[in-house]
Design goal:
CATH superfamily: GTP cyclohydrolase I, C-terminal domain/NADPH-dependent 7-cyano-7-deazaguanine reductase, N-terminal domain
Strand order of the largest sheet: 1-2-3-4
Number of helices: 4
Shape: elongated
Distance between the termini: 17 Å
Helix content: 25-40%
Largest sheet: 4 strands, antiparallel
Low-confidence stretches: none
């Protein structure tokens, strides 16, 4: 199956368990892999026959920021559901990274990955 990837989309949001995480934006990093049939677009060379990247990004940002979540797992689930509902996508893989996770350790980030399939 064909796929489109959007990598390292940075979105400011206030998701987290602790009050201090909810008081100011942290930057989250999102990767999306959207599985769909791209053959028609490859033949026609028309935007109308593929996914509009700008539209996907706009929907993702809107869904990611419309509500405050405690867990990145919950916001990632919400984004997956919306993308599968709104677009001609068969499967979506989302990775959400939280570089500023409040963990007392030397680490680059924490990351959650979800894979969801249209039912």
């Amino acid at each position: 199956m064909d796929s489109i990837r959007i990598n390292d989309l940075k979105i400011p949001a206030r998701h987290g368990v602790y009050d201090f995480e909810k008081s100011k934006d942290g930057i989250f990093e999102i990767d999306l892999e959207l599985f769909c049939n791209l053959k028609g677009a490859g033949i026609s060379d028309r935007l109308g026959d593929t996914l509009d990247y700008q539209e996907i990004i706009s929907f993702t940002i809107e869904e990611f920021t419309k509500k405050r979540y405690k867990l990145v797992e919950a916001v990632a689930e919400s984004v997956c559901r919306r993308l599968l509902k709104e677009f001609q996508i068969e499967k979506v893989v989302i990775r959400v990274r939280k570089p500023h996770a409040p963990i007392k350790a030397d680490f680059k980030n924490v990351e959650v990955e979800l894979t969801r399939v249209k039912k």
